[in-house]
Amino acid sequence: MTKPVDPSTLPYRPCVGICLLNAQGLVFVGQRRDTPGAWQMPQGGIDKGETAAEAGLRELMEEIGTDQATILEETAEWLRYDLPPDLVGVAWKGKYRGQKQKWLACRFTGQDGDINLDTEHPEFNAWQWVPLERTVDLIVPFKREIYTQVVAAFRHLVG
Asked: Is the separation of the CB atoms in 110 and 66 below 8 Å?
């Protein structure tokens, strides 16, 4: 049996999240391939030497096949979440206790047909546009507090 990992000994993984808004003020969410029923906004790690903005546009391309977006705002603070105990020591090869995220609000400048989930390393198997407030109910429970903060930060952008 492996020894439990003490989360307090692990750092947070630097990450960017993207609140992608269409012209109607709805937000892109994708259903995770590895967790049916779990819908989330695009997100991913920030590589060394990369800004949150650079990482965000790269992650859009990697996850939804397009980076046709204009950055509107970035959260001033890092938002953090901890992994549930059963994922500590497992997710991200056990290197992190959770993620610290910069969130970007972006305006989608493409057409729905530009979105292509069949990427090199597909993360989503379905997608939809939803009201910003609904994203909190769609995300896995351990990320709900982050999504509540994202909704509060960007609510003014959806009119």
From this structure: yes
Per-residue confidence band for 9, with pLDDT thresholds at 50, 70 and 90:
confident
> Does residue 12 sit in helix, strand or coil?
strand
Task: Say how many residues make up the chain.
Answer: 159
* Fold of the domain built from segment(s) 5-155: Nucleoside Triphosphate Pyrophosphohydrolase (3.90.79)
Which amino acid appears at position 57 of this protein?
A: L
Is the Cα dihedral 129, 25, 44, 59 positive or negative? Answer: positive
Give how far the C-alpha of residue 1 lies from the chain's centroid of Cα atoms, to the nearest Å.
Answer: 33
Is pLDDT at 76 greater than 90 in this prediction?
yes
Query: Over the stretch 79-104, which tens digit does the pLDDT of each residue have?
Result: 999 988 888 777 778 888 899 999 99
Read off the amino acid at residue 156: H
Distant-in-sequence, close-in-space partners of 150: CB < 8 Å, separation ≥ 6: 17, 19, 41, 75, 79, 103, 135
Pairwise CA distance, residues 31 & 63, whole Å = 11
pLDDT at 2: 53
Q: In Å, how far from its chain's centre is CA 122? A: 14
Beta-carbon neighbour count of residue 117 at 10 Å?
16
Q: How far apart are CA 124 and CA 135, in angstroms?
A: 15
